Batch of 2 targets.
Target 1
Amino acid sequence: MGLGGGTGLLGFGVSSAGRPVHALFSAHAGRRPGALAVSAADGTLTYGQLELRSDQLAHRLVALGVTADTLVAVCLERSAALVVAALGILKAGGAYVALDPSQPAERLTFMLDDAGAGVVVTRPRTAGSIESAGAHIITLEGAAGAVEGEPTQPTATTASGNDLAYVVYTSGSTGRPKGVLVEHASLINLVEWHRRAFSLTDGDRCTQIASPGFDAVVWEIWPPLTAGASLHIPPDELRTDAGALRDWLIAERITVSFLPTALAEAVISLDWPADAALRYLLTGGDSLHRRPGPNLPFTLVNNYGPAEATVVATSGIVRCESDAFTAPTIGRPIDGVQLRIVDDQLRPVADGAVGELLIGGAGVARGYLKRPELTGEKFIPDSTSEDSSARVYRTGDLVRARPDGEIEFVGRADEQVQIRGQRIELGEISATLDLHPAVRSSVVVASGVVPGQTRLVACVVLADGSGPDAEGLRSHLAARLPRYMVVDEVVWLTELPMTGTDKVDRAALTELVAHRSRAAVGPSARNELEEVLVSVVAELLGLETVGIEENFFLLGGHSLLGAQLIARVGDRFGVEVSLRALFDNPTVADIAAEVERLLVADLDQMSDQEAELLAGGLVHGSA
């Protein structure tokens, strides 16, 4: 079935203005040069200052030969300097390649070489670790981002809708990431929809929280800066602490914010003051399982879209409904986007039937960098369009349309999955595992016992029956892949199961992982305190049990789950374990020792009668 675009979140039409984002920004800088543009740990910039510094960088880039479709890499952390770099590259007429400096050096080197970027904009401290043969390195210090000796007036470059705006790398099934090429016309379609849909004005205060290499950053930066609004970047230590982040959002009077799904679910479960300035909390990147409560002072909006369709393809308000067991939908197509739901022969499915989602319209990317075969496979002609050049993107996602027109996400048609806010291909992890000399073959499956807590499990066959332990393989992956792609568990097999057509039986592996016994988890609980903590940790991680010496974070735990663990420990034992203590003491045995230490400290402050009562309880049983 087909779903027409142009309805968007709130039903606005598509603007015909079409000016590139850097031109829209400069218009605001000319009108309100003293208005706040960016506030971050590395400094603040007004619109006038950001205009000047990005113009200086643009002049340097033009002098280096940057022109239309020239790729310039940006390897910077969340910062005001990141905005200076992206804006300066667009002003020079080039396209920026977004890279996260926290990624493993081997992965960064591959992406730099693959992009063939002749210029890299980065920090002095990062420049030495970037290996890109022949690339010219431009380093930015602090928020100033000024390139001394360059003119401050605007460059004479222009950009058409068909010119590249940016390249973002996504996971690749062959073991190497693939760059997605996005043009200015697609970017401005997203930006204009966002500004209309969320009524963005120069009085709004928005956030930049996503990873610099994640395509959501595009969505965070450009709508505010083309509306005259300000962009606020929280300190790193707050980004994964739901309570601290909520307090920061309130204190900074943020009005519109995007948070990855897991973090958004944690934030909406907290208490909020009725007078909070936040109007919209946007989320996406994973399946949303939780609905907002009735007393939240802001609107929660769920969004869906692959990088190949310019960040967002569908969007919808998540309402507080009586049927809390019905998962939120991914909304309706945004302005300028058309959707089709088809069967495996690309024929429209019946109303309400499940099928693969095809995305067409203004958001469709140009294709993949240096991957013409894959581009032809995934970006196919739009048979419903009168424009012979029109294409649709095959998402591989299975969805169904509800009678009210909203779209339900069902799952993946292949082995690509959404996990920890990122879209990844399990084949890339397997390909990286197979690089280990002791590994003969491997398959990675996603296992989700508890909704929203997907875990990555590697099924591994060793070359000669012996080799590294699970930790050794995780270290091998961590040196080459982002942390969210490091497996949580390793299952050792003598052979991989095969189907009747001599293909790996992934269904059998998934079933094996889901039902396998965790008998070999190591030492079991030695006392009542550890028994309680084993139960709490296992429930949070969606496991049958855990060993008292197993590392909470290596089992799939992360900061948000750590905060939940701390809260449960506090409810059960009446003590407050800090998140730092959990990072330093990540096993059940360590946590139990920390709880005992805190309880003993409390005993010293109790009366003799209170201490005697407590001593007969859990602490006594764990001594």
Target 2
Amino acid sequence: MMKWLCNIFFSCLQQCKNFFLFHLCCMQFFSSNKGLQEIFFEIIPPPPPSRVKWSAPNQASCQLPSFYGVTIVLDNVYVMRVLHNDRLLIMAGDSVAEAQWNAFCSNVVGEWSGLWTFWDPHTGKVRRLFNCVRSFKALNEEKTLIKHQNISDDPAMSPEHKGPWEIRREDTDENGFCHPAYPQRRAVFLPNGGGVWSTGDINGIDKLGFELFLCQGEHRCSVIVSYDESKQLRLFGTIREKQRTAQTEVWSPSTALRESFRHSDINEDFVGVINTLDKNLHLSSIPGSKWDKSYWLRTEEMDDMENVLFKFLPDTICLSCPAELCTNSFSLRACVLFPNGGEKELQELTVTFVDGQLQSVRQGRYHPGC
């Protein structure tokens, strides 16, 4: 019954037909179910009239602009579909684990060629620099078994960091994507492939490392931070990658750190949508959000900023992180300005831990706007 409703609803959204009739029928069904946790959907252009709103129990109504798909979480199961650039990311009936696996397969599987750069946080000097191809190859048509191998020109990369490994669908669970090399860690993906790889519970762990993903189609970058046993920042770095089949190059070979954002890069307002995965990996979105430029320009007084480092990496990649993990409650932030065929897309990722537990992964995707 649910999948039948989903398919009809999705068809109505695509064709912009019978939307209001279906809205009434669908909401009557959902409003009677106490397991409903969140509803959000975005309509493929042309959008409905600006006054149209979608309401749900326990959630304020939200005005509908035109975005990309549908997400409804009911009893921890995604019961609608999400599309992005015509690629299916979440199928009707997906569990949280399935949504995580689908995001991985849709955005990560392939061959990624990139430059890995790591800096000393105290001196700013490059500590390691090498090229590497991260290969993720599906071993069956269903994409339930993925082979991962790192092919690098770095003589210091040990065999245990090269693989190959076989990643199995059944190892990904409600805590996120699991890699066999580090079963205690999880990757958490948003629908476009952005997210974080870390330990969901950092309590009792001596050395901590985090990889923040920012993705745009055939290009992506990772921002990496690592802390030693004393919880001091040990190093930070970036992986700037593209699909080996990509025809365009957006990354430079530069390793020079910068003092700040170039004002010429961000001399306009950026507006977009914020997507957030909560601690249960449930997705919600806030359209019409404005990028917080003042945080990165540090033009306003901010509390508790004496322990926060701002690092401005090559290619308009930025990092904000604690110099020392004084408590187990903190945030890591990364930002990158993607040149998208002449149209800028600015992405920001914020990963928050509270009392040692992963609390949320928030992704902002912004474009120049008024």
